């Protein structure tokens, strides 16, 4: 890497407040707020709205869409197209 042009790459805590989930990783993201981590050290913290702990795809709480029923309802309402 070329010296002096890249932001500092350091440990940062990402916290999903809705799910009560946090993880420590390395990032160039910055924050003025800090949090004391499990190891006793203080790290910058970045609050996120969605993480793997709260996203429906990862939690299994996603809704199943009945595409066949929607197609049939569309055809009943508007008839079959392309005649």
From TrEMBL:
Record keyword Ribonucleoprotein present: yes
InterPro entries given in the database record: Ribosomal_bL28/bL31-like_sf, Ribosomal_bL31, Ribosomal_bL31_B, Ribosomal_bL31_sf
Keywords attached to this entry: Ribonucleoprotein, Ribosomal protein
GO cellular component: ribosome
Presence of keyword Endoplasmic reticulum: no
Recorded superkingdom: Bacteria
TM ranges: none
Protein family: Belongs to the bacterial ribosomal protein bL31 family. Type B subfamily.
Quaternary structure, from the entry: Part of the 50S ribosomal subunit.
Protein's recorded name: Large ribosomal subunit protein bL31B
Species name: Streptomyces albiaxialis
């Amino acid at each position: 890497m070329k010296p002096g042009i890249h932001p500092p790459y350091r440990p940062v805590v990402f916290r999903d407040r809705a799910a009560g989930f946090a993880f420590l990783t390395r990032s160039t993201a910055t924050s003025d707020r800090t949090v004391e981590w499990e190891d006793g050290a203080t790290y910058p913290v970045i609050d996120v709205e969605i993480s793997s702990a709260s996203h429906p795809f990862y939690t299994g709480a996603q809704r199943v869409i009945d595409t066949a029923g929607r197609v049939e309802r569309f055809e009943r309402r508007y008839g079959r197209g392309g005649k």
